[in-house]
């Protein structure tokens, strides 16, 4: 027995126990017979299954029990102590639970009430925390410096156990799920009873642990590969019973191979101990860990070895808890319903069993892979583990979307992604728990967090999947066939997985300093190469340049202009909520109010970028906007598709406001950062950023066509808006930073970005024209959108080229980096002869509002932005009144984005040229573009053939120009430090003008001539008067801008002279 008393034998015994204890993952095998034998509907079956999940995840008792009986090492001398006792208590619950479930399903006992069946299911699941606690915590204690790999192996075999048990089912049960339940009650019980005495703790660390852990990892990969081959052969070709028996026998031989690793490891350790070349050292890493500095980020990471009450009082505990609700909850809901989903898509029985088995393999790969990979990147690059949690939850969201699509093979592909991501959480979360909160009470804290899993499973399985399934299922037999049975449910779970990814990212940012310290401590212990733990952060610093920031900002801007696509979904919003035109216009105004009310974003940007803060920077502003974006569009979609009852108009206005209010946060972060990074060419930089924002409408519509086709459902487009841009912004926002330097080659590379933007705009215009005139097949639409994505990636080439040139010039000192203190530390005020002056740079909002120039700019924007907003909000209704087709209407919205882009980009670029070469004040371009806008309104009012195309070109370019010129003028007249706040205060003029012109002008005159039956109107008279009024308003705005031009002409001459002198 002494030979067997090593941690490697304990690891082998733990692997065998885990390999046969994952019966909860095979619920899909016997769920159908349970449903039919007990006459359950889908909601009742899901309720019963949730108690399995509750039992499998409520592990507080097992954690406290482990701490009480297994806190001492194997040398304690007490018989009734050690991990084996924890396993034995779990074993009793396993046998009782599955025994009574079999008797109920087979009719041995009378059909129990639902509550009693829930109790049986709870016992069957509640054994798992006892097995898991004993094995996982023991593995962390035995292999403390490679906890991720050890936990990944143990958790991996638990995930793989489903496939192993299904192989047993094929051989011994003859296809009868009742026999399988009896098999679960008997065979694993005997196996676990035999092996549990070998599971012990050994508190030593051997520097050769990694080598033998890699051996166990290789064996696990061989086993999973073999199982996958067997499952595929069985699914495609079929296997005779003798072949099944042979394959299972070979599987048992493979499962015995960890003993070879144990024997080899013990032999090497004995040799090292005898020769004293590699002594065994006492383990002090985790159990006796020093207290970490608790000052990091306002005590972001507390000291190690907290108890559960201490842990619950920390923010990190609840971040981990919420992330697990989203990830584990939706993963459990998927495995609980995967058989029903396959049946609804008419998969065969063999395919359904294969799906469950393959899920176990993906689950294993996620559990094993995330532990191994996170250990590798933690030790070699210093990557904090929570970043892998964020990545895998994003992967899970994609998997849910694939499953919701219902296309051929989607259930296989989607279950692969969801299975990998779900398994990853079970490896990452325990390891993160042990590192942040300590290993002594790890089990209790780990399973307290695991309560999130059944909570999420109940919400998703019962309140989402069960509710929506029963809503569309047949009343006769509670069955449903088709993609619609589960589509909405899985789109909701995709949204929640994405939310969990965002929460995990916050945890990553809060713990990155802690992980850097943790790795440094381990490196010091084993005398590795110093400084390696900061390699990740140094790599990030190398790529963090203002050009990478510009590329990231371009991507964010390219997907954030959903407000310009309101016309795509305005009709379905109107019909689904039974709005008349005035109500629809009233709701749309709140989108405009949110989209231009940026005072809060301005203040937040000033706060986050004015000080050197570890958690500050423009990315915080983007993140706050991202949360509002997702919440707003998700609830708009839920209202439109009937997921929630039609909300009152004020509540819908709130949803629309949140969706729109995200835009000021994105715009502030990207535009103000661009102005600070490129102060000498602020017009061009701001024009590029605002240009891509204007272009984003066309990009999002191309996404809509690629996913949904030319005549797609606008409700699906709203859901796409909630998910896809959120992912893009989430991935790119960390790169948006401020760099207070000026290099003399800025103009050259900004011109490169300008050329790229023009190429993208030209390509989109060609695609839209071809689609309108000739039409595009679905394959061509997908191909064209992929090409758009490739073009959007091209700014990275400019960033790489700029970085290379700047390094060369910096090393040669031929082109020194200039300080921008002249811009950030303003000169004295410039006084004009008439007594009024342009306020000194860096004036705050109150100082700016006390000047005449502020109100002139505000009034000009009220006329220009207000009438532009009113046009885009009503463009679809104008087209419908002139009997344009759906394709033409979508093309109008897409082309508006092109003209909007050209106005935004062109106004910034052209005004920069004329300012530097001819000293033309920028306000003169506002006057010119507002005059062009007035002409566009007159053309639209004419109602002639093609007038809507021609008029929208002029209005779109003029409207876009305001969004480029106004921020740049604001930064020049009032300074850059408080630019975000002042700029968006002036932007309030947009929704004010939009409300007046949309509701009091367009809505009033439309409803006056519309039919009383369905509030519809056809003909040029519907909008003629309204657009003639808006033309007059635009002319008035042009006159106001001319006054501002004359008042600031001397200021701009001095500004140009100062830049030339510099």
TrEMBL record:
Localization per Swiss-Prot or TrEMBL: Membrane
Domain NFD4 C-terminal positions: 312-516, 848-1052
Membrane-crossing residue ranges in chain numbering: 6-30, 50-69, 81-102, 114-140, 146-168, 180-200, 212-233, 245-265, 317-338, 350-370, 390-423, 444-469, 489-509, 547-569, 589-607, 619-643, 649-669, 681-705, 717-738, 750-770, 782-803, 854-872, 892-911, 923-942, 948-969, 981-1006, 1026-1046
Name of the protein in question: Major facilitator superfamily (MFS) profile domain-containing protein
Domain Nodulin-like: 7-262, 546-799
Annotated organism of origin: Arabidopsis arenosa
Topological relation to the membrane, as annotated: Multi-pass membrane protein
Primary localization: membrane
Keywords: Membrane, Transmembrane, Transmembrane helix
Top-rank taxon, per record: Eukaryota
A cellular component annotation (GO) from this entry: membrane
InterPro entries: MFS_trans_sf, NFD4_C, Nodulin-like
Pfam families assigned: NFD4_C, Nodulin-like
